[in-house]
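Researcher: Structure for this, please.
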Amino acid sequence: MNTPLNNKLRLQGVGMTSQRTRERLVQRLVDQGISNIEVLDVLRHLPRHLFLDEALSHRAYEDTALPIGFGQTLSQPYIVARMTEILIAATSKRDKVLEIGTGSGYQTSVLAPFVGELYSVERIRPLQEKARQIIRQLKIHNVRFHHADGGFGWASQGPFDAILSAAAPARIPEDLKQQLAPNGVLIIPVGEQEQVLTMVVRKGDSDEFSEKILEPVKFVPLVQGVTR
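Model: Predicted structure, token format:
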């Protein structure tokens, strides 16, 4: 029964989802090199267990990826924090940001406080609808959702000051690069068997881009098409 009290307790968490458990996760992230205080503070207060089925909620504050169905995962907290702090450090303007792969909505919820408007694309409709409900419950109001193939971005809403992808293509989609605003930044995992987190920067308003490999990562692949 979803009474206001039950909803409040679920947001706060108890036992393995309590604030004390979240603090331990944050300390692990600090030990791994996450240094942006504001990003750490968002992760400290965001109830990650909401993004999982209740059977897995006791594992929510482990620093690991966890299944959310449809062959997708709830991203590891370290990589969510890392990608967010990289994007923040690389951009001075974040009025419009595009996210590829809403998934559970966890990365969406971490990124939303740092941008003006967040446009999030997801190819699997049931995942998108669940994420939409959680984000509404968390009272996050600056996210717009689009059910589409993420490899094509969201051209009608571009250009974007930054783009963050939570899925890995074999090579960087040209559509995403072309949707960057002048000096825009794309943070994306790239590769198949071996993946690397890559930062792409548009050089002014030209069609020239610089690429920088950041670190090895492991993401679900960026799959073409949509599911209902």
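Researcher: Any notable elements?
Model: Helices lie at 4-12, 19-31, 37-45, 77-90, 106-111, 125-137, 174-178. Residues 65-217 form a domain with the Rossmann fold fold (CATH 3.40.50.150).
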